[in-house]
Amino acid sequence: MHAAVIVFPGSNCDRDMAVALERAGARVSMVWHKDTSLPDGIDLIGIPGGFSFGDYLRCGAIAANSPICRSVVSHAEKGGYVLGICNGFQVLTETGLLPGVLLRNAGLKYICKAIDLTVTTDQSAYTAGYDVGQNITIPIAHHDGNYHADGETIKALKAEDRIAFTYADNPNGSQDDIAGILSPNRRVMGMMPHPERMAEDAHGNTEGAALFDSLVKHVVHA
Amino acid sequence: MKARVHVMLKNGVLDPQGEAVRHALGQLGFDGVEGVRQGKVIELDLTETDTAKAEAEVKKMCEKLLANTVIESYSVEMG
């Protein structure tokens, strides 16, 4: 599997994401935001965490309009896989590839701690390595992770089994405890927690590793 | 020509920052404040001299970048 990890000015989880993907067996190319095209034969695009463009205007808004994002959107429209973690999730909502937005945390504070997530579906390449209802502990580190969408969108996410992860104890005010969601074709996923930070023994636990292992195993060339 | 864009959270979207400001005003003894909504003002300097054309262009900018219309509404003031 050949993955591209996009690097924006202010990305700070790009290398962690690359390491987690490589550990799972993927070949990884780092791609700069000013590039206009992706390397040939990319199966998965990773949009990493961080503070792209200093979170100016709105989190992810400037990144979503950077040159490489046109290629990210067309990759997704062709049925390609795209994983956005933390700031990457914010970028994906700003591109419109995922519905809703991430608002300022309800408690207004930046929160950085390991929290419990519940796996809500195993019907995706991202979550097939977990069981539905399984609890995993991985960190969050965000100021704007409060998921918000209109009632129709939330209804559709539930009806189509597109909520990937929920918070066991909602830390940020997200609607319906939503921590991660899937696109209608289940190939684009955004999540606020950081599975790449719980992917090897030195991290304290490896409960995030199954996500990358499962991706490498299931992703078919788009 | 100058344009001024006001971006506000739509009604019904929780504004935790506005709520915190309201709370702080209460602490300062301003008891009459029932609600606070916090938004943004963006000022643009444009080369276009035709007001109607400039306004149409700014509205496009709002739709594409300056506002996220899922949660925000905007208004444009020219001149």
Largest sheet of chain B: 3 strands, antiparallel
| Major beta sheet, strand line-up of chain B | 2-1-3
Shape of chain A: globular
Oligomer: heterodimer
C-alpha Rg of chain B (nearest Å): 16 Å
Distance between the termini of chain A: 11 Å
Pick out the low-confidence regions of chain A: none
Helicity of chain B, as a percent range: 25-40%
Structural class of the helix and strand makeup of chain A?
alpha/beta
Structural class of the helix and strand makeup of chain B?
A: alpha+beta
- Largest sheet of chain A, described in full? 9 strands, mixed
Average of the residue pLDDT scores of chain A? 96
Low-confidence spans of chain B: none
The total of beta strands of chain B comes to 3
Helix content of chain A: 10-25%
Order of helices and strands of chain A: EHEEHHEHEEEEHEEEH
Instruction: Tell me the overall shape of chain B.
Output: elongated
Q: Greatest chain-chain interface?
A: A-B, 21 and 11 residues
Please explain how this structure is put together:
The complex is a heterodimer of chains A (222) and B (79). The N and C termini of chain A lie close together (11 Å). Chain A has a nine-stranded mixed sheet with strand order 2-1-3-4-11-10-9-6-7, sandwiched between helices. Chain A is of the alpha/beta class and 222 residues long. The radius of gyration of chain A is 15 Å and the shape is globular. Chain A has helices at residues 14-23, 61-64, 67-77, 87-95, 151-159, 209-218, and strands spanning 2-7, 27-32, 44-47, 81-85, 101-103, 111-119, 135-142, 146-148, 163-167, 178-182, 188-191. The mean pLDDT of chain A is 96. Chain B is α+β, with helices and mostly antiparallel strands and 79 residues long. Helices cover 35% and strands 27% of the residues of chain B. Chain B is built from two helices and three strands; from the N terminus they run βαβαβ. Chain B has helices at residues 16-27, 51-66; strands spanning 2-9, 40-45, 72-78. Chain B has a three-stranded antiparallel sheet with strand order 2-1-3, covered by helices on one side. Chain B is elongated, with a radius of gyration of 16 Å. Chain B starts with a strand and ends with a strand. The mean pLDDT of chain B is 95. The A-B interface holds A 57-58, 61-62, 65, 93-94, 99-101, 103-108, 146, 148-150, 173 and B 13-14, 16-17, 20, 64-66, 68, 70-71.
